[in-house]
Amino acid sequence: VCFAVPEKEVKAVSEALNSRFRQALTGGRLSQIEVIPNCSILAAVGQKMASTPGVSATFFNALAKANINIRAIAQGCSEYNITVVIKREDCIRALRAVHSRFYLSRTTLAMGIIGPGLIGGTLLDQIRDQAAVLNEEFKIDLRVIGITGSSKMLLSESGIDLSRWRELMKEEGESANMEKFTQYVRGNHFIPNSVMVDCTADADIASCYYDWLLRGLHVVTPNKKANSGPLEQYLKIRDLQRKSYTHYFYEATVGAGLPIISTLRGLLETGDKILRIEGIFSGTLSYLFNNFVGTRSFSEVVAEAKQAGFTEPDPRDDLSGTDVARKVTILARESGLKLDLESLPVQSLVPKPLQGCASAEEFMEKLPQFDEELSKQRQEAEAAGEVLRYVGVVDAVAKKGTVELKRYKKDHPFAQLSGADNIIAFTTTRYKEQPLIVRGPGAGAQVTAGGIFSDILRLAFYLGAPS
Amino acid sequence: VCFAVPEKEVKAVSEALNSRFRQALTGGRLSQIEVIPNCSILAAVGQKMASTPGVSATFFNALAKANINIRAIAQGCSEYNITVVIKREDCIRALRAVHSRFYLSRTTLAMGIIGPGLIGGTLLDQIRDQAAVLNEEFKIDLRVIGITGSSKMLLSESGIDLSRWRELMKEEGESANMEKFTQYVRGNHFIPNSVMVDCTADADIASCYYDWLLRGLHVVTPNKKANSGPLEQYLKIRDLQRKSYTHYFYEATVGAGLPIISTLRGLLETGDKILRIEGIFSGTLSYLFNNFVGTRSFSEVVAEAKQAGFTEPDPRDDLSGTDVARKVTILARESGLKLDLESLPVQSLVPKPLQGCASAEEFMEKLPQFDEELSKQRQEAEAAGEVLRYVGVVDAVAKKGTVELKRYKKDHPFAQLSGADNIIAFTTTRYKEQPLIVRGPGAGAQVTAGGIFSDILRLAFYLGAPS
């Protein structure tokens, strides 16, 4: 038997009980009279509750997702109210969690955005532009409660005004502090679900994912570092995520907004067997070989691409193949292979003698000395009716991956690429004669942010938003 | 104040209360003493409940999803138990719903499969083969509790043994009855969530969706009839689905297992604007024009495809363009256009005089008479460095759709198709210079069943399965 009494009457009630039940207590028929202090009562009251199944489910679900433990429950058969006893310190959070569940009736997501640069900034603008539609059509309420760069961060419990986030960062931003930021996003506010959106390419930030998932934060990211980093760390994250009921989405790590990871997952989950994933995963390298058609030398095409801004400031970052290797590692692991980036054979297009060049300028200057070799390869391919393409391959049968320059017949889908398109072909037991192919721009702020945004919405749907 | 007493003591307790509170009752300080008969008590008891937040949420959620109303709740502060009072008739269902939630701790889905033919049968086999992995890795428990064909149906509350479903259908199947089947899948069993999977192409079955969604059944289907049928009916379904928190997925209506609908949804939901969707949506028509390269007449290519089983028994079903028009209608509506199949301009490849042929044989015999026109078109295209392709177009800017034979430059992705591949290009605000393209087999039992299966798993994830 338990009941709640006002704090000031606790002493009197306790004495009265002890005196009234003295006999039973000394006789051992009652074990003790216990007083649990610092409790609060939260009641949901409403006329329609009696005839609406699911009110208590919603009520308790809201409390559970806000991580609030319930000491006692009472509901009378008149069914006009549900009353719970909780810890006093949880009281405001509980009230808000329940309010936001019932009155707004929305799937509300608290978001912390890390890295408000080109990608993160575009994402914030996309969310701003789409917020009303999401609220109206899908009952999804996205609240960016924190934005942090490397030096400054901006926090707001009720949600940052996204029409002015750039000014607000400048005017009201405080010193960035990742621990404080994490604490804030996870912490004491009224939104039951929180997600960290890492828009950086930073390995240090990726190393926080485990801790975030452990603390019940969902994670969405285009950052390749966690999934292509040390195998053990990756497996640890995936294992925790599976067990913890938190979600970890990273569609934009491969092909930006193109549906690559989700397609692969769909195939695997429904029991298809991946035989081979082969693709052109770098927009830059796609552009270079789509335009290396015999009219100019390879170094000229590189110079042209650099000037047009299609390469990294130092084109060696593209030509080394590391970025492609990361994507191959991600897809291989997603397919169940235990590959490590370090053991993946990668054919670098940076000539050995130029790897040590002190600057991009020096590299560009010396690159023409090495044109002959690639020209020869191109001509040999051409003579055989083929073209050169820089591809990544996951060979799921032989359980290995490679990144290399390969030759393709001119009627192969990879030979017919234009612009800086990515193309990815899945050969599986079901798609064996003809592969499943996805093609399109695999880089750029708008499409990358779109891919991240899509993951955030998937999270909202997984958390119960209507579809 | 309310309390539960055993049925046989109700009379005595009621009399005692009435006598004890007579004064208060006559004085109007108490309104009445009410007896609510036929109730049952359901209690969840466990040592660890005190320290595990979310137990009550899970408990009440299980009851809510099973549509069980709760009369009264009690939880003592010892927190070893939660006790609820429910209608006696709900008692077994409630017990089972809660049991399956707590002990199995799985997302359990009751499924009714309609149409166990080529597609539905393949789906059942895929589910059988994948069940263990889903249970193990995703804690998803798929229970096929009903399979119905047009003449026979098989029901099993605990789940049909999928290793023997074909024999069981023959040996134990009863007369098919859609109302009874629906009632059974929705009805009195212990699995809180139910989905109807319509693997037919039947308009009558599609006309049940509204009723199913209304009754809280989720719907998954490759059947194009509902979404390409009367606009009003489609809008009514979508409207209900949004409001009812049930899910309605139909990825396989376009491109079978290719990620078409999900990709389109992802773009729209994240605020991208669709400008144009253009594609080759018929594997048969893809095959015909990929092979109509000047070496044979069009009718010869059709005859060859018919013999290889690539066309419908009556090739007019493919050549009429109706199937493509249905897919265009589906994509147009998904994009927000209010198009009707009837008003969509469709260029039929069945010559007018042959529309009335009594048989496929007569049609095939007379088709060569009309070869000249298409040959001429092909040669004109060829002379301009182009090819003929039978495409469907959603022009979201002009708000219209078309199905027609068009010419494409030889370096266009549509010109480079092989086999019976589908190809779909999305041109959007984000994918403007270069479209997002999905290509691959868009028909066949394995890939179509895979697409349906993928939707079923999406449903499970939306209902709370870990990802």
From TrEMBL, chains A, B:
This protein's name: Homoserine dehydrogenase
GO-annotated molecular function: aspartate kinase activity; ATP binding; homoserine dehydrogenase activity; metal ion binding; NADP binding
Keyword Ubl conjugation belongs to the record: no
The EC number(s) this enzyme carries: 1.1.1.3
Segments crossing the lipid bilayer: none
Keyword line: Amino-acid biosynthesis, ATP-binding, Kinase, Lysine biosynthesis, Metal-binding, Methionine biosynthesis, Multifunctional enzyme, NAD, NADP, Nucleotide-binding, Oxidoreductase, Sodium, Threonine biosynthesis, Transferase
Function comment: Bifunctional aspartate kinase and homoserine dehydrogenase that catalyzes the first and the third steps toward the synthesis of lysine, methionine and threonine from aspartate.
Cofactor: a metal cation
Residues annotated as signal peptide: none
Domain of life the protein comes from: Eukaryota
SUPFAM superfamilies linked to this entry: ACT-like, Glyceraldehyde-3-phosphate dehydrogenase-like, C-terminal domain, NAD(P)-binding Rossmann-fold domains
Catalytic activity: L-aspartate + ATP = 4-phospho-L-aspartate + ADP; L-homoserine + NADP(+) = L-aspartate 4-semialdehyde + NADPH + H(+)
GO biological process: homoserine biosynthetic process; lysine biosynthetic process via diaminopimelate; methionine biosynthetic process; threonine biosynthetic process
Family: In the N-terminal section; belongs to the aspartokinase family.
InterPro entries linked: ACT-like_dom_sf, ACT_Aspartokinase, ACT_dom, Asp/hSer_DH_NAD-bd, Bifunc_Aspkin/hSer_DH, HDH_cat, HDH_CS, NAD(P)-bd_dom_sf
Record pathway: Amino-acid biosynthesis; L-threonine biosynthesis; L-threonine from L-aspartate: step 1/5; Amino-acid biosynthesis; L-threonine biosynthesis; L-threonine from L-aspartate: step 3/5; Amino-acid biosynthesis; L-methionine biosynthesis via de novo pathway; L-homoserine from L-aspartate: step 3/3; Amino-acid biosynthesis; L-lysine biosynthesis via DAP pathway; (S)-tetrahydrodipicolinate from L-aspartate: step 1/4
ACT domain ranges (all copies): 44-121
